[in-house]
């Protein structure tokens, strides 16, 4: 059961309308690493959680907070579109140089949503549920969550730099701080899980069934040896089960593939080199 509190989690009020910036802000609402993505990702991970109940509770805590962030961004976008001087900005955008910089207002903000936010990214592409990760393996999921928060915070910081509106920056500063906490949160959860299971996902697979002779080999598949200087190329492996090995000139292990001709009903290309 969810309850809605009328007050926003934090202030979301711009100093002035800006329909062009509203279009940009759509990215962290409905983009691949936007708030709708992490909201859906955390909630489904929580609803599907079969592990320790503290992880389920934590996931639903943060997933519910992300609903609040969706509301804040939608509210901010709607206010950035309030009484927007659309005609002036569209006229200015007719200048090729100015237009390239401004990008212009998202026409769907006036045609489709009636000066409101939409569940889309900054290019108008609809939110896609394939952005979300909920695998049932908490270590794999928490690593995906850390990536999502890292990319999301990066995008919000970039948006912060793109405006001098104090109201917008005030809200973004809140979101940036919460993304700092959420990155810390996922790192802490990952560390806790790794104390109780191997760091390689899934940890439950019997590794005798993998080709262990290449389990810790870094293979140099490009010109140059600079990659040999990294932590991944020498020393104890991160899973503690071996030593990293650097293979400067890796060889192919497999066969040269030769496929049989397709049967006649497929109507493929005949193999004219085949002996009669």
Note the topology:
Elements: H1 19-25, H2 27-30, H3 35-47, H4 53-80, H5 86-92, H6 96-102, H7 108-111, H8 138-161, H9 166-196, E1 217-219, E2 245-247
Parallel strand pairs: 1-2
Helix pairs in contact: 1-4, 3-4, 3-8, 4-9, 8-9
Keywords:
276 residues; mainly alpha; two-stranded parallel sheet; 9 helices; 2% strand
Walk me through what this model shows.
With 276 residues, the chain is mainly alpha-helical. It contains 9 helices and 2 strands, in the order H-H-H-H-H-H-H-H-H-E-E. Strands 1-2 form a two-stranded parallel sheet.
The H/E string reads HHHHHHHHHEE
Could you give the count of β-strands?
2
Tally of DSSP helical segments: 9
Mean pLDDT rating: 92
- Helicity level: 40-55%
- Structural category is mainly alpha
Oligomer: single chain
Briefly, what is this?
With 276 residues, this protein is mostly helical. The chain is 45% helix and 2% strand. The mean pLDDT is 92.
């Amino acid at each position: 059961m969810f309850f809605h509190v009328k007050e926003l989690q934090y202030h979301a009020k711009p100093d002035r309308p800006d329909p062009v910036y509203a279009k940009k802000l759509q990215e962290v609402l409905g983009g691949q690493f936007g708030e709708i993505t992490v909201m859906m990702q955390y909630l489904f991970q929580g609803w599907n959680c079969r592990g320790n109940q503290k992880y389920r509770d934590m996931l639903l805590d943060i997933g519910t907070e992300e609903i609040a962030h969706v509301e804040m961004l939608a509210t901010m976008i709607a206010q950035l579109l309030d009484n927007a001087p659309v005609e002036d900005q569209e006229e200015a955008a007719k200048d090729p140089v100015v237009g390239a910089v401004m990008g212009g207002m998202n026409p769907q903000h006036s045609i489709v949503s009636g000066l409101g936010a939409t569940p889309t990214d900054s290019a108008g592409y609809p939110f896609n549920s394939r952005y979300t990760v909920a695998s049932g393996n908490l270590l794999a999921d928490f690593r995906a969550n850390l990536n999502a928060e890292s990319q999301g915070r990066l995008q919000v910081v970039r948006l912060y730099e793109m405006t001098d509106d104090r109201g917008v920056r005030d809200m973004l500063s809140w979101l940036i701080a919460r993304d700092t906490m959420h990155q810390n949160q996922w790192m802490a959860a990952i560390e806790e899980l790794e104390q109780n299971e191997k760091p390689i996902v899934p940890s439950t697979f019997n590794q005798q069934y993998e080709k262990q002779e290449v389990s810790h080999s870094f293979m140099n598949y490009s010109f140059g040896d600079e990659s040999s200087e990294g932590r991944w190329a020498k020393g104890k492996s991160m899973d503690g089960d071996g030593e990293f090995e650097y293979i400067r000139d890796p060889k192919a292990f497999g066969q040269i593939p030769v496929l049989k001709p397709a049967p006649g009903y497929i109507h493929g290309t005949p193999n004219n080199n085949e002996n009669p």
